[in-house]
Amino acid sequence: MAGRRPKTRRKQHADPQGIFEGNSRGFGFVKTAEGEFFVPASKTNGAFDGDLVQIARISSKDKKNAKKRRQGPSSATKASSQRAEARVVRVMERAHSTLVGRYEVAGPFGIVVPDDTRITHDIFTLRRESPDVPDGAIVKVRITEYPTRKTSATGIVEEVLGDESISALTDERIIAKHALETEFSKASLDEARGSSLDVAGALAQGYRDIRQRFVFTIDPADAKDFDDAISLDEIDVDAMDFAPIAGVEFSSTNAAIFLDGHELCDVEHIGPKLKGQRIWRYGVHIADVSYYVPWASSIDLDARRRATSVYLAARVIPMLPEELSNDLCSLRPDEDRLCFTCDMYVTDSAELVAYDIYPAIMRSDARLSYDDALSMIKGDIANADAFNAREATKTDEASFSPELFRHLISRLQHASKLAKARERYRMSQGGIEFSTKEAKVFLDDDGNVSGIVVREKNDATELIEEAMVFANEVVASHLFERHWPCIYRDHEKPAQDALSEVVAVLQEFPWFKKALADGVLCGNPHAIQDVLDECEGRVEFEMITMLFLRAMMRAVYLPQNVGHYGLGLKAYCHFTSPIRRYPDLVVHRMLKAQLLKRPEKFDQEVNSLKWIAEHSSEMERIAEAASQDSQKVRIVQYMEQFVGQTFDAVVSGVANYGLYVRLDNCAEGLVPVRSLGDEYFIFDPVRYVLRGSDTQKTFRLGQSIHVKLVEADMQSARLNFVLA
How far apart are CA 560 and CA 52, in angstroms? Predict the structure, then answer.
């Protein structure tokens, strides 16, 4: 008919995608760009926790039918009432190819019940394929078929890890659970054993000899590999008559724009700025792993797959063979070592006026623990005799001459001042400082936990952290300004949706003003820091810190520079730990190619940067999860002796099924909602609150409460509490 517009087919929007977060009760949640969705247990379509899934909204008609089928107010019903519901259309990418669990004999089948309670699907295996596996054994199973609406998951037993008497997450089970590599290839080990230090060869390649400089390391007392060292020397600028230092690039302004693309700024322009000022050469010296691990070598292939060392409570799974990590690449005192040096020339206020980056040969003069360094910085130990007398009582004896001790004291104390100045600078540029604690368990000779130490920031740890951050910034900016390939450590600002959830809670407090709300909503780091400063000392400080930490994006590796939001830096990379992180090794190779010459396979490595960055980010997440699992089970083991005792705790998580609480020693556990009282508790996921329907009794994130430990379950690695 004339005048009628032809029908056009509307383009369908793609179903949203996200990571499925499973729950032990069978249901789950999926966070997508369109918001967070609740997935009923009957609609998971065989998805496992961690899978990338595609979902579709459940229509109102389907919801009504489902509601009729429900019997009673289940916890899943409570949770779903707060979010839109969806069903899993299909699993796009599986997070698990293997699982660890308990083997149960059932006729012709061996059924593996996964350790991870968030995975509620048992894996069926054929008994005839593994007839010798005993009932109750802990096994690793490879999944051959994933579950569907009509079929169960099937698999093949790959390895028997032990019997069910071993605790739920011993290191062997953790290694199997996260599919960690523990053995190096024979070719890799042969290469490592064949490696040697060649000082003359390194000098011929362009390495500088800095063995005359006073250099020292600061690490945890139990560290076995030392991949970073520092030095600090005063430079006599007046005696130099402002002549340029060979290879050093100067800036006439400050660290915010110290790289302007020029090879050397006008010396006459710098002169008035530096005249009469004290200038310090602040050196960061990093183990030169790239000398021993060229691209595509056997060691490199092993290291590239691992991407990171993994730190478990009772062992370390290194990225490199020990011949390198604990020997040739370790900056041990009184031994010649190859390194990559980044010298930052700074004023007394830590303003950067020049820098110099180069490969070198160094010799460490002293190895300090963090406790040693802290004692010296604070002046708790007055002289070398007193220090040596104290150290002589320890197993790892240290001995310093009076001259060496004086060098250490003066440099440590001034380096500490520079670190504080650098932190103030970063904060002025938008860096955010969170107050966090970290627990480390200590084991006796029998592998039992002898104690838990809570590590907090102090002057010694700050000294090293700021020095490493400084060098990482300088190296990233150096490569970025030259448009040179690099893997950056990028951290984007939080999503506005995540920040709006924080603001919804903050608005409950009278001190929180609209001006702060506007700044927080747009992700202004100064506004976030102002909020943290404003609430410090208040009862809500713990809660607000947790909320902001949860809102933060995760830092990742990328071949593009987007800056580091949390540190307040425009360019940042990882340069300072190539023994334990593969991206640092890549950065060293890129630097060496830019400063010396491109290797034969340089283009091949550059073309792999995107994959390496993505893989390293993923392996970092796996390593962190394994480390947390290992610490967690050891903490549960330690807490067994305190069952029945009461503790002060902080609510570290709120869910519809209960409260997660954290003790002062960082042990965490669950207070089930059923133990809070006979009344019905309503869960508010926006404000992280559980509120009693009758008494209005309220529990919220960050709240201080008293709890009683009622169970330390080694099989599930869980602590269970009730209110005291």
Answer: 25
CB 15 within 8 A of CB 56: yes
- Residue 89 has, within 13 A of its CA and on its CB side, a CA count of 11
User: What type of residue is 101?
Assistant: G
Which single residue is written with the structure tokens 């990418």? 93
Query: Using CA atoms, how far apart are residues 583 and 585, in angstroms rounded to an integer?
Result: 5
The DSSP symbol for 436 reads: -
The SS3 assignment for 451 reads strand
Q: Which segments of 183-278 are extended strands (E)?
A: 208-209, 216-219, 228-235, 249-250
Answer yes or no: are the C-beta atoms of 53 and 88 closer than 8 Å: yes
pLDDT band at 403 (very low <50, low <70, confident <90, very high): confident
Q: Dig out the tokens for 29 from the structure.
A: 């949640």
Backbone phi, then psi, for 126, in 5-degree steps?
A: -85, 125
How far apart are the C-alpha atoms of 29 and 621, rounded to whole Å? 20
Kindly report the backbone phi and psi dihedral angles of residue 681, in degrees, each rounded to the nearest multiple of 5, phi listed first.
Answer: -105, 130
* Cβ contacts of 716 within 8 Å, gap of 6 or more: 117, 168
For the segment 104-143, what is each residue's pLDDT rounded down to a tens digit? 999 999 999 998 888 999 999 999 999 999 998 989 999 9
Tokens of 239: 């005696």
Rg (CA), the chain: 29
> What string of H, E and C letters represents the secondary structure of 614-629?
HHHHHHHHHHHHHHHH
Count the residues in the chain: 724
SS3 string, 638-654, reads: HHHHHCCCEEEEEEEEE
pLDDT on residue 71: 43
Tokens of 28: 């789950």
* Token code pair at residue 585: 């090794």
Instruction: Please give the residue that has the higher pLDDT: either 451 or 338.
Output: 338
Q: Compute how many other C-beta atoms are within 10 angstroms of the C-beta atom of residue 483.
A: 8
Quick one: CA dihedral 302, 305, 307, 311, positive or negative? negative
The candidate with the shortest Cα–Cα distance to 441, out of 176, 222, 662, is 222
- Quote the mean pLDDT of the chain: 86
In terms of pTM, does the model score above 0.90?
no
